[in-house]
Amino acid sequence: MRIKKLLDRSKFCLGVFLFFGILFCVNTGFAAVPQYGGQLVMSTTSDPKSFNDILAKETSTSDVTELIFEGLTRTNAYDLSVEPNLAESWSVSEDGLNWIFNLRKDVLWNDGKPFTADDVVFTFNDLIFNPDIPSSSRDIFTIDGKEFKVEKVDEHTIKFILPTKFAPFLRSMSQAILPKHKLENAVKEKKFNFTWGIDTPPSEIVGTGPFCLKEYKPGERLVFTPNPYYWKKGKQGELLPYLGRIIYLIVQSTDTMLLKFMDGEIDSVVLRGTDYPLLKEREAKGNFKIYDLGPDTGTNFLVFNENTGINSKTRQPYVPAYKIKWFSNPDFRRAVAYAVDKKRILEIVLNGLGYEQYSAISQTRKDFYNPNVTKYEYDLDKAREFLHKAGFVDKDSDGVLKDTEGNKLEFTLLTNAGATERIQMAGIIRRDLENLGMKVNFQLVEFNTLVSKLTGTYDWDAIILGLTGGGSDPHFGNNVWMSSGQLHMWYPAQKTPATEWEKRIDEIFIAGVQELDEKKRKVLYDEYQQIVSDQVPLIYTVLNSKLVAVRNKFGNLHPTEFGGVFHNLEEIYQIK
C-alpha cells in the first residue's frame, strides 16, 4: 500500500495496469482510428517526493513512477487475472517453490540499453533485499523473516526460489524493475537512498515503461513523452504509446483542479461528491463524460501515534509518555471511533456519494471483505463511557478532560493541505471530539512533509489520511499490517510485536500468504479484519465513490472498477 495524497478514486493501488486492449473504439457512432500525437493534461496537488520507485511510500511519487517503470507481470484491469509483461512466460515446480521466468528479448530501457536478467537480480538482491535501503517492498517479499532467492539463469531467464509457498507470487511480480546500469554505482557507494531525487535531470530517470520524464518544474508541472524504445506494439504491429505528451499540472488544491477542468485547462478530474451535481448538469453540453466506478478501493482513517521510540538526534521520545498512554489504550481509540459521524460526513462532505467504512478491506474486494466486523455507529454517549473507562474525567469542570495524572486531553490533528474533503472531515470530527472534552489543535501540512513525519521523523500526534487499497490480494497490505512493516503507521518497524493482537495479525499474514486454498485464506483474513475493528489502530471514516470526469476527445477509453479510467494509457489516443 501507499499513502494517498488525496481521496484518490481513479487509481488502483498497484498503479496503472498496462492492458493490451482494443485498437478501435466507438465514438459518437463511428470507429475512430488511433492517431499519434496530442496530449493528456491531468493535475496533482503536490510535487513528487522522489523519482525513486523503490523508496516510494506515497502516491505523489508513484503517480510519476508508474508511467516510467514496469514489472515482470501485470494485472488485467477487467478480471484481475495475471498476464505477461516484461516476462513473456513462466513455469513453476510441483511444490510451488521454484519459478522460472522467461524475459522478453525485445525490451530496451528508454536510453536504448538492453533489459536483461541482470536488472531483475539487481532490483531484488541489491535494492529490495538490501537492509540499508528502506523499501516497503521488502515487507511484501519477506515471509516469516525469510527472503526469496533470485538467480540469473542466462541473459533472459530468471529463477526465483521461494522459502515457502506464496499465494500471490505471480501477482506480486508486478514489482517495478529498475536499471542496474544506471543505479549500481549508487548502491556500491551507499548513495542509493539519495539517488533519483527531485533534483535529478529527467534524462537520468530510466525505465522500460511507455513514457519518459521529459520536464519537471517544481510547483508547476511534470511533462512526459513517449519512450522511443517501448516494446509493446498495437494490434497491427504499430508502435505504442499513441499520445505525444502527458502533462501533470501541480495545483494548490482540489478546488483549483475543478476550476481548471471547467475552464478546459485539464482533461480529467477526480470528482468530490459536492462537485458531482455541478458537473452533472453540464455533462451533456460540456463535452465530457462522468464515470462512476463504484466504491474506492482504498481506505480513509484517523490514526494516533503510539511510537515509543526515541529520537536519535534529540534523545527525546517521539511522543510524550502520557500521550503514549492515551493513544495506546484501545478504549480511548474506541471512544474516538464512536465520535466519528460517518453519516454526517457522507452528507456534508461527499454529498451522499460514498460509503461508511468499518473494515480494513474495501467492500470492492468481495472475495476477502468481512462485512461482520465490529461497527462503531456514531454515539457520543458510548464515546463518553469509553473515555471514562480509559480514566478521563473533567476534574475541575473547565470543559477539558484530564487523565489520571492530571494531564489535559489535548493533541494536534494533522492532514494534508489542499485536500478539501479531508479538511472538511477533520472539522466535523474535531467538533465532536471537543464536545466530548478534548482539546484538538488542527493543522494543515504539505503532503510530502506529512509523509516525512509519518515515516521518518515521527513527530506527530494524530493524522487524518488515506491509503491505496491492498490491491488484488490482502498480502499487499503487508507493509501496513505486519508489526515490522515500514507503513505500520501507529508504531512502524517494531523489532517484536508491541501487543498480543499485533502478534496475532503477524501470524495471520504469515499463514495467509502461504495458504493456497482461497476459502481458508478468507477465514484468516476475516479474523485479521475482526481484530483491527476490535482494536481500532486505524479509526475508519468513509469511502468515496470513484467519480471521474474525462473530456470527450480520447479514444480507447475503457474504464474499469479496479483499473480506473487510464489503466491502458499506452493505448489511449487523442481524437483529432
The strands making up the biggest β-sheet line up spatially as 20-19-21-17-22
Biggest β-sheet description:
5 strands, mixed
Distance between the termini: 38 Å
Summarize the amount of helix as a percent range.
25-40%
Which regions have little confidence, pLDDT < 50, spanning 5+ residues? 7-31
For this entry, give a set of tags:
alpha+beta; 4-stranded mixed β-sheet; Dipeptide-binding Protein, domain 3; 5-stranded mixed β-sheet; 576 residues
Task: Describe the SSE topology.
Elements: E1 25-27, E2 30-32, E3 39-44, H1 59-65, E4 73-75, E5 82-84, E6 87-92, E7 98-103, H2 117-128, H3 137-140, E8 142-143, E9 146-147, E10 149-154, E11 157-161, H4 169-172, H5 180-188, E12 211-217, E13 221-226, E14 245-250, H6 254-262, E15 268-271, H7 276-282, E16 288-295, E17 299-304, H8 321-327, H9 330-338, H10 342-348, E18 354-356, H11 380-389, E19 410-416, H12 420-435, E20 439-445, H13 447-457, E21 462-467, H14 478-481, H15 500-514, H16 518-535, E22 538-540, E23 542-551, E24 554-555, E25 573-574
Parallel strand pairs: 3-14, 19-20, 19-21
Antiparallel strand pairs: 1-2, 4-5, 6-7, 7-11, 8-9, 10-11, 12-13, 13-14, 15-23, 16-23, 17-21, 17-22, 18-23, 24-25
Helix pairs in contact: 2-5, 9-11, 15-16
